[in-house]
Amino acid sequence: MTINNGILLAGGNGTRLFPLTHSVNKHLLPVDGKFIIDYPINTLKQMGVENLTVVLGGSHFSLVVDHLKDGRDHNLNINYIYQGEARGISQAINLCQRYVSDQDRFAVILGDNIFSDPIKLFEADESATIIVCKHHELNRFGVATFNDDELIAIEEKPKVLSDTFRQYAITGCYLFDQQYFEFFKTLTPSARGEYEICDIITQYWKHDKLDTTAYSGELWSDAGMHESIARCNQYFYNKNNSGVI
Ligand code: DAU
Asked: For the chain, N or C: smaller number of CB within 10 Å?
């Protein structure tokens, strides 16, 4: 399955990466000799995306435009949307409606998500797909809980984890259809004042229109904290140098 339209979120304030993000946009920090943002762009291209909408915001957002320009260097057609205030991932996606409405489905990726390998998409019947992955720090992420194969809960950054059920992090890569924009109208901001992506995913789930796919690559990580950037660098260094320090 290939997806033509994609959205990449490169807004937000990057507060977990202070002091670096006082001087640079977080998506332009380096991982293994590339900009962070180049990894999610590559992931979308592997899915077949040719038309990309990039959401800009936060500090030094214009550096992202300096890097991507009109997309020609990446073989992409790029449009930009400016998100004046970081009001949440689902609000940022909602701003892009006019650029993704010519086809039913579109892909979304968070600009700080690094996947070492392509995401394998299956011909899904459902209107939305989330990509889930095992992770050792589940309470930093959206979490999907399963009883055997049945999805029984979706929660953003749960404080308490289950001893009984299988739990996976919900990665920052999603497929949605045009119903997204109808579901968004029903959302209200969370306690932290953001329109949460897990609330949209819950809407699809409650309407029985959600697929989950397990990521089968070697590394998935966000690059939103100093520790996670170090982990990504270490992974690529070891891979390229057979673990020799
Ligand atoms: O990395 C996966 C996780 O990303 C998911 O498991 C969570 O469900 C999801 O909420 C998100 O959690 P984070 O707290 O890590 O998201 P963060 O605020 O760091 O934003 C992730 C990216 O989205 C980042 O590259 C900036 C962009 N963003 C974020 C917000 C809140 C925007 O463009 N606009 C926004 O308003």
From this structure: C
